[in-house]
Each structure stands twice: as structure tokens, then as C-alpha cells.
Design brief:
Length: 259
């Protein structure tokens, strides 16, 4: 990268603004060596380094879209997801949709299955730090997020039927618990896994500030495992697929994305 001084001149901004932007990119694992004394360095393409024994964990916003896009390069794209609200998956699906509309990807069939917490689940998080009376408001907000993201995801995928004649199926089922992790299975050959790490933070709920225990799911670090790259990784992918299918077929129940 150019030096911070050169970037400030090129974009007509203060050095502090440049430094803040570089630190954000570093936090998302896109840059390294961000300091006052030397130029930053661009990290390798995450699409090339996400899988394999030496693959580093990357934030969901960085790692998920390239791998989902690669999955859509197959004639039959299969995506299974276990998560809280599907916001990360909805964001990641945007890139392969753009590639399809541009004619660069042409899957014949797409199957997406998503496991989300049911509406009657007493969510473990988000949870108010002190104001127990706010629990209901937090639950309603998370439920609204779940429904909205799920509906957008389903609508965007099903639209491929009319626009490109792709055979698309999108199915949701409800879990009777709050998942402590997120899992994405891609074409039964890759597993992307992340912990929902809980932290105390302030959020605005119903236009009022509230201290809560919650997770920033879009920034959760994804660990990637590929089938065939390593015996342990292959086993992890296989066991993850068995675990997801067991949840789907046993305690998972019908989910309607309504308020």
C-alpha cells in the first residue's frame, strides 16, 4: 500500500482518517503491518487461503461470501446454515447472485436449508445486563431481525426461478435452543464454523440505550475445514454434516417467518 501521507494527499483527507480506515481494514484481516512508520501490506486473497491445514480464521464478513460464491459454481449448489438471524448468509449470498445475473455463474439447481431459533425460545443472548424487564423487547427485536433476514434471503433466491430458470428450494426449520455457534456447510465438502462470543455492549432498543450481553455475529471468526485436505478436516466436515442433519430431522420443527 502507499504510505499514509500519500493516501491522505490522494483522497484529500486527514492522516487520522486514513489511519482509522487502515485499522478497520486490518481488523477485518484485509491488511497487515498498519503502523505510523511503514506502509500497510495487503493480505493474500482470502479465497485462496481460506481452506487447508494452514488456513487462518477470518471474520465472517471477509470469509463467507467468497466461499459461498465458489459453492455456486457447482451445477447443484447446496448450502446448509445454522445461525441466529441469517444476516451473514443473506449478505454473502449477494455476491453469487450478482455473478449469476452477470452470466458468470450458472448453477442448474440451488438448495438452501437454514436452522434458526424458534419464536418461543427464551434466547440466552442478547440479554439485558441489569434491566430484566427489557428481555421481552430484546426478544422481539431479534425475532424481527430473524424474520426480515430470512424473508430477504428466501425472496432473493427464489427470484432466480423467474429470472434464470434455476431450480431453487429454500427451507427453514426452527431450533428449540439458542445456538452458541454458527455453521455453514457448502456442497457437503466444506464446513465453516464460528463461535458466538458474548460481550457486554450498549445497544439502542426502542430508541433507548441499553446495556446488553450480545454477540457481533458478522465479525465472528470463521474456521474453515475442507473435505479431502486433511484426515481431521475431512472428519470434521462429515461430523458437522451428520450433526446438522440430525438437528434438522429430529428436534427441528416447522418455521414460519412471520411476526
Amino acid at each position: 500500500m502507499p504510505t499514509q501521507a500519500k493516501l491522505a494527499v490522494e483522497f484529500g483527507v486527514e492522516r487520522g482518517t486514513v489511519r482509522q480506515a487502515l485499522r478497520i481494514l486490518q481488523s477485518e484481516c484485509l491488511l497487515t503491518n498498519v503502523s505510523k512508520g511503514s506502509p500497510a501490506t495487503v493480505v493474500p486473497d482470502p479465497r485462496q487461503t481460506l481452506t487447508g491445514p494452514a488456513a487462518p480464521p477470518l471474520p465472517t464478513t471477509v470469509a463467507l461470501a467468497p466461499r459461498v460464491t465458489a459453492a455456486f459454481d457447482a451445477s447443484h449448489a447446496r448450502i446448509d446454515a445454522l445461525c441466529l438471524t441469517a444476516v451473514s448468509l443473506t449478505m454473502a449470498i449477494g455476491e453469487p447472485l450478482r455473478q449469476i445475473h452477470a452470466g458468470r455463474l450458472k448453477p442448474a439447481k440451488v438448495d438452501v436449508r437454514v436452522l434458526l431459533p424458534g419464536r418461543d425460545v427464551e434466547l440466552a443472548f442478547p440479554a439485558p445486563v441489569d434491566e430484566v424487564s427489557a428481555t421481552g423487547r430484546l426478544h422481539r427485536r431479534r425475532l424481527a431481525q430473524r424474520n426480515a433476514q430470512g424473508q430477504v434471503l428466501r425472496h432473493n433466491l427464489l427470484a432466480l426461478r423467474a429470472t434464470h430458470g434455476i431450480d431453487v428450494r429454500v427451507t427453514f426449520r426452527a431450533l428449540p435452543f439458542t445456538p452458541p455457534v454458527k455453521l455453514y456447510l457448502l456442497n457437503d465438502t466444506e464446513a465453516l464454523f464460528a463461535y458466538y462470543t458474548i460481550a457486554r455492549r450498549e445497544q439502542e432498543v426502542d430508541h433507548e440505550p441499553l446495556e446488553v450481553y450480545d454477540t457481533e455475529g458478522t465479525q465472528s471468526m470463521l474456521f474453515a475445514f475442507g473435505q479431502g485436505t486433511d484426515p481431521r478436516e475431512t472428519t470434521f466436515v462429515e461430523q458437522s454434516r451428520l450433526w446438522f442433519n440430525a438437528l434438522w430431522q429430529t428436534i427441528g420443527s416447522e418455521l414460519t417467518l412471520t411476526d
